[in-house]
Every structure is written in structure tokens, then in C-alpha cells.
Sequence to fold (535 residues):
Amino acid sequence: MHWFRKGLRIHDNPALIEALADCRYIYPVFCIDPHFACPDRVGVNRYSFLLECLHDLDQNLRTLGTRLYVIKGKPELEIPRFIRDHDVDLLTFERDTEPYATKRDSSIRDELVSSPSKGRKTVVVSSHCSHTIHDPEQYLSLCGGNIPRTYQSFIKLFEQASAPRIDLPPPTGDMVPDMSAADGCNSSYDVPALDEVGYAGFAPSRKYIGGETEALERLRRFVTAKERASWVRGFEKPSTSPNSIDPSTTVLSPYLKFGCLSVTKFYNELEKIVRGHEHSKPPVSLHGQLLWREFFYFSSYVTPNFDRMIGNPQCKQISWDRDAAIVRAWEMGQTGYPFIDAIMNQLRTEGWIHHLARHAVACFLTRGDLWQHWEEGVRVFDIYLLDDDWALNNANWQWLSASNFFYQYFRVYSPIAFGKKTDPTGEFIRKWVPQLATFPAKYIYDPWNAPLGIQRSSNCIIGTDYPLPIVDHDTASKTNMGKMKTAYQMQSSAAAEEVPRSTTAAKRRKADPVAPADGIEKKVNLTAFFKKSKS
DNA sequence: TTGGGAGTTGTTCAA
DNA sequence: GTTGAACAACTCCCA
Fold:
């Protein structure tokens, strides 16, 4: 049995290949987990995208002579049940390092390992790391407990790691056994419809279609097609537009999130395109984007409580507000800043927004303007993003709120000026904030400054048809900068007081309150921590 | 130990 | 239109 969770593909799937080797029957299984099938936590667009991935996977598996067996319920109960019912003796899956997944998987592993004691046959459990280029454990052992906190130092670690794997081709039909004796025609294992999994009455956008077939086609269209080579070689993320009507980047992130596209394959394809040519470099290149993903996965793996401020030793402790009405106004595109509202409307509607658009709205919600907790931003992005990824979402919110990784809190995005650079006439705003569709370009980023006559002739009275600004940006951002300064100072002095023995110890403690002063001890401590967290 | 340099992607204004 | 300084000054890394 191969259990699909992420990694919803047949290409470059080492765990699937292992399951297929010398098997009498093969059961490719996906379990609909009620933890995720929940509109409050996973928006309809992402769930619909997932079901499309499953349909595509089912089709691809049928071409090989088997199918996808979709079961429903808590995996901790349903996976062992399926294994018993189908007399499975080998379970394979792709390793998942998120806390929810590690807990789930170790519980299932424990249950299966204890099978003999319950009078059942032994089940071998085998997992493979293929969601990231390298196993985070490899980085951990290479760095010897000296965890990189910056992208550049992570790159050095990446360069010390083994060469990325050669990505595996999809299995062929002759690797799949005759499944006619298995219950492959049982329709109770079919991919369910949205309304069967708690999304009755929800209408997905379907702007981006899920699945491996679509992922590989998109990779071809945007990356590997001959005519794309110069674009790929010249790619620099900061010079792509956050507010173009058509996405200015590849939008492969949702496919990486679900593993419809292997990150290793993506990396190797990029290598082929840039090798022997002049090309952009990390951090801004396309390669660089995959290395950011790698860096944040590793950071999330080695940092306790990575999805929280409290208990997260790398995270600045800041007294953010939590005002439900303010967060809600931001979420629903009602801040009165058209650039911010347009982005949030695009997010809720289509599930994908440009990386720099994420920067703008995240800065606005936290240290820039509204002073709301970054965890609230994580929660909202968790609902709406197609590419929502636990490690990346939490890392980026910490970055943008200047809580971790990035500390130049005095660099604040302007909700008025930033978007003008790439869209001076406000076409993006006209599309996503239709009340402002006929507003003159001069005022479209700050419509409250338009004379009443212009508001009237544009059929949009600010304060009536579209909100007044929720805060004054100039005032709020200056006030917040002061709060950041105070928060940073308090953290420094608290750290210095905590360990007055030496400046080095104090500095280290400040950076990592749970770490012992000595590097070797730190390594031992980390190892102990991982053992503990795995168990 | 310490000081300087670098840091994915800020803004504004003057030259 | 482009470039560089000022804004006020952060942390991490490494020599």
C-alpha cells in the first residue's frame, strides 16, 4: 500500500516505486481527513484543487492498471483498518515534517509496529523524503547544531549537501500487478465530490486546476519550453510585478504544495536550462525560490513552536493587538486602501496572489499599519491560499512582521506608493475593487483625496460606496516603528539580564533562549529535542 | 572578542 | 528618468 498525502504524483515518487517493487497487489490510497476537510480551516478553492489532484492521480493510476482508493475518516483509524482489511504487509509514504503529520504518522507507525502483539501480521512501514530537495535531517547533521539563520548561510549548507537526486520517471504499466482480484471496481473508493466532504453550497473559482497533468503542462509552458529559456535565465523575483492582471510568475507553488510537481524535478529542469549560460542567481533566481522553500522547511523543522510567537525561541516577542473587527476588515478587503483591498479580494476569490502582494498586505496587517498579530495573518492565509504551506506561510509571516529572519523594521511598504511602480494606472485595482473601476488614475491609490466632484462623476463616494482608510498610513507606520523599536530594546535588555555572565552568552541567549551557551551542548540538546518530538 | 559588512524585493527627495 | 543619500538603525555572520 502506498499512502498518498502530499506528493500527489506518479513521477519522481520514490515511496510509490518501493511499494510497486515485487508486489502481489498495490493499493494506492488517499484518506480524506476531516481535520482538513473543514471550510473554516481550508477554503473551498484549495479543497477543490485537492479533489482535482485526486481525480488526476486516479486517472494516471488507472492508465497504469490500478486506481486510487479514497477512504474517509481519521487516518489514525482508517489507515490501519484498510491495511487489515486488505492484508497489506508493506506501507510506504512520503515523509512529511509538519507537526500534525509527524504526530499522525508516528501514531500509525506505532499501531502497526505493535500489530504482532495484537495477533496480527507484521506490517513494514517505509517512508521517503521527496517533498523537499534534501531531508532536513541531512542539513541538521551537516550544520552540527549551528543552525543557519540567514539565507546566505543556508546556501552554504545547501552547497555542502549531496547533489540533488536524479528525479525518477513515472512507473510503467508492467510494474503494476494484475489487480482484477482486488476490489478495484468498488465505487465507495471513488474520489468524492465537494458536497460529500463538507463543502455543500460552496462554489470554487477553478482559475487554477489541480493535478499532476496540469502541473507538468504548466512547468512546460512557463519553464521548460524552448521559448521560455531566456525568461528563466533572466528571472529576478523582485522585478516581477505583484499587481499584473495575469500572473507575472509561474504559479507553480500550489503544485509544489500538494506535490503534483516534484521539487527535485523542478530543480533539475532549471539546472538544465541555466547550465552553460549567463543566468540570474539566488536569492532572486528561480533556483533561489526553491532554495527559500528549502531554507524555510529546514527552519520550521528545527524551531520549536514555529507556528506561534510564544514558545518560539527565534521569534521576537511583540505585544501585537488582536482586534477581530480590524482583522476582518483586512481579510474582506475593507481597509479603504485600494491596493491592499484589491490583493485581498484576489486572494479570497482565486486563491493565489503574487509574493510581493503578500509582502504588502502582511506588512500592512502587522508592523506597517494595523499592528495585528502575525498569527492572525497566518490563519487567514491558511484558509484562502491554494499553495498554503505550513512551513512557508509561518516563515513568511514572521519575516514580514520582522519577528524572525528579517529585522529592518524601519523598511515599511507604502500601501499607496508600492503598487504604483508596476501599475501606475491602477488596472489591478479596477479589476479587484470594482467600485473604483472608473476612478481617475491620479486618485485610484488614495481615493479619499479625490475632490467630491470627481468621486461623484466616478460613481463612488468614499465613505459611502467604498470605505475611508482604516488608519492614516503615515501616522500609523511611524507609531508602529516606535513600538517595534521598544519591543526590540525590551527583548535585548531582557536577554542581557537573563544571562549577565558574558556578552557572548547574552547574545546567544538573546538569539536563542532555549539554547545552551556551548555549541557542542547545543548539538546534543537539539538531538534530544528531535528524539522527543518524534516520539 | 569585536567591528564591519551584508541583508530577496522601502520610501522619499534632491541632484 | 536615474541614482544616491537620508531616514534611523535592525540582526547575523565572519574575519
Residues 148-150, 152-153, 402, 405-411, 481, 484-485, 488, 511 of chain A lie near DNA strand C (CB under 10 Å from a C1').
